[in-house]
UniProtKB/TrEMBL annotation:
Residues 101-364 form the Chorismate-utilising enzyme C-terminal domain. It comes from the Bacteria. This is Isochorismate synthase. It comes from Mangrovimonas spongiae. InterPro entries: ADC_synthase, Chorismate_C.
Amino acid sequence: MDFQDLIAKALEHYNNSLPFVAYRKPNQSTVKLMLQKDDKVFKVEDFSESGFVFAPFNDKEDIILIPFDDSDNFQAEFNDLHQLNKKTETQKTAEILEEDKTNHIKLVEAGVKAIASGEFKKVVLSRKETVILHSKSVIQIFTDLLQSYPSAFVYCWYHPKVGMWLGATPETLLKVENNRLSTMALAGTQKFSGNLDVTWGEKERQEQQFVTNFIADSLQPFANTITLGDVQTVKAGKLLHLQTKITATINGNLQAVLKALHPTPAVCGLPKQASKNFILNNEYYKRTYYTGFLGELNLKEAKSRNRNRRNVENNAYASIKNISDFYVNLRCMEIEGDQANIFVGGGITEASNPIQEWEETVHKSGTMKQVL
Ligand SMILES: C=C(O[C@@H]1C=C(C(=O)O)C=C[C@H]1O)C(=O)O
């Protein structure tokens, strides 16, 4: 199937008010489409299910599933950037509301105060910004995201009883292939100005180290070996972040591992419960699915043995891999009628400057506004 046919199928499904998800993994060209056959709201109970997961920030709320068995699945290649109409005109930067700025600064000040008084060590504080879409369609936004962010997980998710979400996230929550787990600690932000070789402040290094330590500690009860990579600077659109890759061999079930990890201090804080309570009680809006996670759950993939082997008979015994591949729902938006709600936040430590934190959220929302 070619990409235009895949888009037409998704549109038809949307017009029939039926759930679907279209997505492309980082640095890949294959776009997958799952069309759910009815409009039931399926929920994940224990992560033994198989399908596409859409989980909220608050782990007390329901996790939505588009089950593989109740869906028609398609895929297409998206690699010829010129096959599409050229990227549509970027909308002028929307006006920043003075009230949003004052509120965010107040929120960060309250966060810094709570840290200074010992309530927690780090908290990620965020806000919602609304942009009017004018004539741009959801499908145009999705294809612009695919073109603009080749190294992100790009998706468009729709359920008539839940909503319409789009995003291009740079952050993996975890990937599990049989019992091999890989994840990342991503935090710290600065603007990209043409150079990856940049210096990072102590605040960003510490903030990212909190995330690495938390992930390593949380995996400890389920892991035989945990390997941490070096701290690297990575690019996400026009922003840079600090990242440490983490791999482990796990012996626990996926539900227990997720319960320990989500939400990580990359999107919540440290310690988890105190920072989470602060977020739920103090942010000026409800996060719903922003900073939740999404992706494939228990996908079965046939993997043939090494093709270079002399003994070709071995190739007959293709092994089946069980794969779960989840991403943190960042750099995302919710579409409501003719408006897009963009969600942006940043990590706060005792050393945070409220005005700089406000500016960081402005840079992050700019990344999303580029495709609107
Ligand atoms: C919370 C967001 O991003 C997270 C926070 C970061 C930070 O504090 O520097 C960086 C990357 C993400 O882990 C967001 O993009 O909304």
